[in-house]
Write a structure and sequence with these properties.
mainly beta; seven-stranded antiparallel beta sheet; five-stranded antiparallel beta sheet; 2 helices; 40% strand
Length: 548
């Protein structure tokens, strides 16, 4: 039930609006605000909508029934869709209680849309064409995804990312969300998205207009620094998303609390910088954590200079990350106090971890640590690819995140016969049971090498429907492994190779090896049925090796 105060007779509403405007002009400022924002922001509450005029060209309208933004005009140009509102998740419906308040100086306004388990905030400052946002949750939305969707005017916002532009498609080729075109190319909202560690500001444009999402704080999101999720889709509307969590190849539990802050920024077409969110500390948002701590890592030994290193921190409450210098030094500030698992990533592969405690107002210093879990440090007779948690060096590995595997721009996936020592980009990034199996590897052994047993490792970064490798060496079948633990989701057909890294290992007896030429055959097995050529049991490769 809505509060009775959200509906008042027209004459009373009109009088209240006039009194509020007068009060905003004559009273002092309580919320911190820069002098450039001292002028009163315009707010009109007519009982069914709240209209905010920022004074810099942006006028937006919020529906008081459900918290949707139904209109956003920049310098008179309507940028919102005429058909659907912009909202959190799939909209809050009629259960939302929508209220607003302004700072006594009139320089800021805060709109709150609240349900029993979710509170969504819109905030603005006078003189800025920005809608600041944050979302507090105590339970996952029933739709199973926490996302803000800006639904834009597709006739105006035509400068959109190509990989997620579905206009002109010839129909869906997978699950009604991946689309094909007459030239064999593909597009989807799943393609061309940034990793979480690179989420800063991205958007869409038109003639003298632009709408950009500033993704802000990812501390309450899930998936870690390399996770990707939907950012754009263009069909009828032009859609801009901020996905805070979803079921899209999700590798860890959802986090509750205050997600954000983040923002929609409206420009005349230029890409804006990340806005200053610090002023929102004065808005008393539910879940805002003011007192924080920091971690300083003095360095790392055992690094591979060919790779970038990322230092991540995660617990059930929050996640953070930062880049390490060439010496392994790293600093991460503004962390919610608590105990975290610190993971050092070589590329995208965890190669060191330990527990770290962060205190409010304190700095935790960690002396130089030695990387102890890099598989590349082991001596191998041969190795295909390298251990870095990615398939980027393999055939079509760099296209997984930008198009469907069936896309006509991709070279053939195979089946492939690969001779060790050959060009790594000829080895397939993905093994599909129904498309490019088996993969055959040929290699030579000396008499001394053939006289000793060896360990075969196949490392993967993700798998679909319990796909795992069945292996034979010179026609001798090795024991079939059990399935790895992976998210229950589509993965490498929706723009991601990131699941849970896993290594399958076999001890190859000397009876299966030969001096001279040897043949290794890799075929996917699964206890589940394939759903199609590309939605078939398989995995993404990280590395394949035969150890000394």
């Amino acid at each position: 039930m809505k509060k009775q105060s959200s509906r008042r007779p027209y004459r009373m509403r009109q009088s209240l609006t006039l009194l509020l405007v007068l009060a905003l002009v004559i009273t002092g400022n309580v919320f911190p605000a820069q002098k450039s924002h001292a002028a009163a922001i315009g707010v009109t509450d007519n009982g069914s909508t709240i209209v905010v005029t920022t004074g810099a060209g942006l006028v937006y309208t919020v529906n008081k029934d459900n918290g949707d933004i139904t209109s956003s005009k920049l310098n008179g140009t309507e940028l919102s869709s005429s058909g659907k509102g912009s909202h959190i998740s799939s909209g809050l419906g009629s259960d939302a209680d929508v209220t607003w308040s302004a700072s006594p100086s009139g320089a800021t306004v805060l709109i709150t849309a609240k349900t029993s388990t979710l509170t969504h905030y819109y905030a603005s400052r006078s003189g800025e064409n920005i809608i600041y946002m944050a979302t507090y949750i105590t339970a996952e939305p029933s739709v199973g995804e926490l996302r803000y969707i800006f639904r834009g005017n597709g006739n105006v916002l035509t400068g959109v990312p190509a990989n997620s532009n579905n206009r002109g498609n010839t129909g869906a080729i997978e699950s009604q969300d991946v689309f094909g075109f007459s030239n064999g190319q593909t597009a989807s909202k799943y393609y061309g998205n940034d990793q979480a560690k690179n989420l800063t500001v991205r958007g869409v444009t038109g003639s003298n207009v632009g709408v950009f999402m500033a993704y802000g704080n990812r501390e309450k999101s899930s998936g870690g620094p390399f996770f990707r999720d939907i950012q754009f889709q263009s069909g009828g509307d032009t859609e801009v998303y901020n996905y805070m969590n979803s079921g899209h190849e999700q590798t860890e539990s959802f986090r509750m609390g205050l997600h954000g802050p983040y923002a929609l920024i409206f420009t005349t077409g230029s890409t804006p910088s990340v806005p200053d969110f610090s002023w929102m500390a004065g808005l008393n948002l539910t879940g805002w954590v003011a007192s924080r701590g920091a971690v300083v890592l003095n360095g790392l030994s055992g690094m591979d200079s060919s790779y970038a290193y990322t230092v991540g921190f995660a617990n059930s409450t929050a996640q953070y990350w930062t880049s390490a210098s060439s010496s392994g030094a790293a600093v991460r500030r503004d962390m919610i106090p608590g105990t975290y698992t610190m993971t050092v990533y070589k590329g995208e592969l965890g190669v060191y971890s330990e527990s770290v405690n962060v205190t409010a107002g304190g700095t935790t210093t960690i002396n130089t640590r030695t990387i102890t879990a890099d598989p590349s440090s082991k001596s191998a007779i041969w190795r295909i690819g390298n251990w870095d948690g990615t398939p980027l060096e393999f055939l079509n590995g760099q296209t997984i995140s930008v198009r469907h595997p069936s896309d006509s721009r991709n070279p053939s996936w195979g089946p492939v016969t690969f001779a060790t020592g050959g060009a790594t980009n000829k080895f397939p990034a993905i093994q599909f049971r129904n498309q490019n199996s088996p993969t055959t590897v040929t290699f030579n052994l000396t008499a001394a090498q053939a006289a000793s047993p060896h360990v075969l490792n196949i490392g993967i970064t993700a798998a679909y429907i319990s796909g795992r490798p069945s292996v034979s060496v010179n026609g001798n079948a090795l024991t079939n492994p059990g399935a790895s633990t992976q998210p229950n989701s589509r993965s490498f057909t929706i723009g991601t190779y990131r699941g849970n890294n896993h290594t399958f290992s076999w001890s190859i007896p000397t009876s299966s090896l030969k001096s001279g030429a040897n043949t290794l055959t890799i075929t996917p097995i699964s206890g589940s049925s394939d759903l199609g050529t590309w939605l078939s049991a398989g995995w993404v490769y990280d590395a394949v090796e035969l150890l000394n």
